[in-house]
Amino acid sequence: MRYLMLSKMQDTQPDEKLFADMAAFIEEMTASGVLLATGGLDPAGFKIESSGDDVTITDGPFTEAKEAVGGFALVEVRSRDEAIELGRRFRKIVGDGESVIHQVFG
Amino acid sequence: MIDARATVGVVWKQESARIVAALLRMVHDVGLAEELAHDALVTAMERWPAEGVPDNPGAWLTTVARRRAVDHLRRSRRFDSTDLEPPDVAEQSDDVLRLMFISCHPVLDRPARAALTLRVVAGLSVPEIARAFLIGEPAIAHRIAAAKRTLSASGAAYGLPSGAELSGRLASVLEVVYLVFNEGYAATSGDDLMRPGLCLEALRLGRLLAELAPDEPEVHGLVALMEIQQSRSAARTGARGEPVQLHEQNRGRWDRLLINRGFAAMLRARATGAAKTPGPYVLQAAIAVCHAQARTAQETDWERIATLYEALERLLPTPVVRLNRAVAVGFARGPQAGLALVDALRADPALRDYHLLPGVRGDLLLRSGRGAEARTEWERAASLTRNAAERDFLRARAATAGTAGRGPELGAMVDEFLAGLGSGTASAYRKSLARMRRALGERISLTTLDAAGVAAVVASLWPDAAPRGWNRHLAAFRSFAAWAGFPQLAAELKNRALPPAGEPVPVDPLLPVLRIPSGVPLRERVLWLMVRESGAPIRAVLALDVQDLDLARRAGPAVAWREQTAALLPELIAGRARGPLFLSDRRPGPARRPGPADLCPETGRRRLSYERAEYLFKRATGRTLRTLRMS
C-alpha cells in the first residue's frame, strides 16, 4: 500500500547535519525500495477553482507560511505501522513541526 | 502516541536483513545469526515500551545483536578482536548481498530458497510466508529449519562468489526473486492480501539487489521487468474478476510511476550491459518496455517484440516462450505466420494441458476468418483451465465466435456412454476418455470434430505410451464414437503393432538412442550415446569429470566417443568447469553426502550412480545398459 506524506514548512533553518542525515535517510529508503518519489513544494502555489462554467485561477500564497506544505514523500509499505515508523524517523531528523500522512488508493 | 510494540515489529521487517547479515559475518551460520538477532528483538520488546523507541532503531538492534554474538563467540572460544569493529557502509552492503547469496544457495531446492529468503532477507514471519504460499505453517517452519540445517551441513562458503561462479550464483538469486514475484502475480484465487503482497516483497528485494550489485545488467533487467509488470496490476482484471488480455487493457489504469521506474531500471541495465549480450531478464524487460511505450494497443511495435522473443527463445527455448513468440509473430506478420509457429507446438507434450495454447490458437484462427475452428479451440481452452473466471471468459468468447455446431456435446455424451456400460468396462474407459474430453473440449459438438483433428490431439496426449496402452486408449474412443453414431471420428486413429504373444518384448535397445523419443532427458541421451559409441565400461563413463574431458579430441580417461555424443556434450556440460559429468537429479540429503570427488561444486548434486543409470535404461527399454556396449 502507498502513503503520501505532506510536511509543513519548518520554522528553523536546516543546518549541515540535517542535510547529511536527510540525504542518508533518503538513500537508505530508496535502496530498500520503500521511497517511490519525494520532493519539495513551492509553498505559494496557485489555486484553481470551478464554479458553474467558470474556472478561475488565483496565485498563492493562501495560508500562513508555517501552515503551507513544503515537501512530500510517496512511500510503498506493507502496513500503516510501517508508514508511521517511517514518518517517525523523518520527524526525528527534521525536528519540531508536523506532517500529514494519507493512504493513496488506486 | 507511538505504539512501541508495533514499532518493534515494523523495524524488524525493515532491518532484519542488515542485522542478520552483520551477524552472519561473525558467526557464519544463518540459523545462529537469526537466533541472535531474535534475542535482540526480544530485548527491544522489553525495553522500548518503557524507555521509548531509539532515534535509529535499526542501529540500536544491530548493536545489541552484535554484543550477543560476541558473547556467543567468547563462550565458544572463537573470539577474534576484529569482530568488535563495526563494518563500514560498503561492508554492510556486502554483508546483505552475501546473505542473499546464502539464502538462495544452489545446495537448497527452489521452494526452500524462496522461503528462507522471505524469512531472513524480507523479515516475514512463518505465518506470513505460509499464507503467501497457501501452505500450512508447520510445513513452512519445517522447510526453513531444514534449509538452515542443509546450509550448515554443506559447509557452503560464506565468501562472496566472483568470476564465473558469481554469474551462476546471481542467476539463482534472481530466479528466487522472480519466483516470489510470480507467486504473487499469478495468484488469481484467494482474497488474502498477502499474495499481491508477495509482488511488493519481490520488488523490494529486487530494488535492494540493484543497489547491492549495481554493475549487473540482469539485476536491473529483472527490476525493470517486475516494475513494468506490476504497473499493469490494476488493469489485469475486469470488473467481475475476469482476466483482461494485455492488448485489451485500459492503459489509463497502468501505473505511470512504476512504468517510469521500470524505464529507469532498463536504462541502468543498458548502461551496465552495453558490452554484453543481453540476458533473459534484460530481454524480457525490453519486451515489457515495448508494450509500456505503446500509447494504444494498435501502436505496439510487434515486429520489435517478435525479434526480442526470437533472441529470448535462443536463450530460453521453453514452450511458453515459443508460444509467446508465436503471438508476437501473429501480430507482426499476420495470423498465418503465427499459426504456423503455434501448430508446431501442438505436438509438444509439455503443453498438452496448457490452456493458453488453444486460447492463442483460437485468437489466430478467428483473425484468419476461421471462426468455427476458433470456437472449437476456445472450448478446449475452457475445459483445460482451472480458473473459474477464466473458464467463463473463454466460454463467452467461444459463444461469440462462429456458429455453434448443432448436435450433441462431447462431455455430456461421454457421461451418457459410460453410464450405460458395466462398471468394469466403464472404469477402464473412463480414464482414457477423461483425458480426451478435456483435451478436445467438454462442450465441443461432435459434429464440429473431424478425424484428423482427433488424431492430432490424441497423438499429443500419449506420445510415449507402449503399444498395448496406446491401443487401449484408442479402443475406448472407437467404442464411444460408434455408440454415439460418429464412427468416422475414429477413422484416423492407428493402432500400434503389438509384439507376438508369448515371446519376450523385442525392444531394440538402440531404439531410444537412434530415435530418441521426445521424453528422454538430455542426460540419458548423452549417457546412452556415449556408452554405445565408446564401448567403454559403464562405470568408466559414469566416472568422467568435466575437467578431464577433451572435447576437441572427443576423449576422456578410458573413454572415447564419436560425433553424436560430441554434438550433445556442450549442452550437458552447460558451462560447468568441473565436477562429475553425469549428475543425479537431486541433491543428497545431509546424512547421505558423498565424498567431494562425487559432488558437483557448482550445483551441489552428486554423481549419477550405476544403479540409477541402470534403472533408467531398464525402464525405457527393458534391457540392461550392458546391451548397449555389445551393440
TrEMBL record, chain A:
Pfam families: YCII
Chain ranges of the YCII-related domain: 1-89
InterPro entries: Dimeric_a/b-barrel (IPR011008), YCII (IPR005545)
The species this protein was found in: Actinoplanes cyaneus
Coiled-coil portions: none
Lineage summary: Bacteria, Bacillati, Actinomycetota, Actinomycetes, Micromonosporales
Family recorded in the similarity comment: Belongs to the YciI family.
Entry superkingdom: Bacteria
Protein name in UniProt: YCII-related domain-containing protein
Automatic annotation (TrEMBL), chain B:
Alphabetical GO biological process terms: DNA-templated transcription initiation
Chaperone keyword on record: no
GO molecular function: DNA binding; sigma factor activity
A Pfam family annotated for this UniProt entry: Sigma70_r2
Domain Core-binding (CB): 408-485
Top-rank lineage group of the source organism: Bacteria
UniProt KW keywords: DNA-binding, Sigma factor, Transcription, Transcription regulation
TM regions (residue ranges): none
Family: Belongs to the sigma-70 factor family. ECF subfamily.
Protein name: Core-binding (CB) domain-containing protein
Organism: Actinoplanes cyaneus
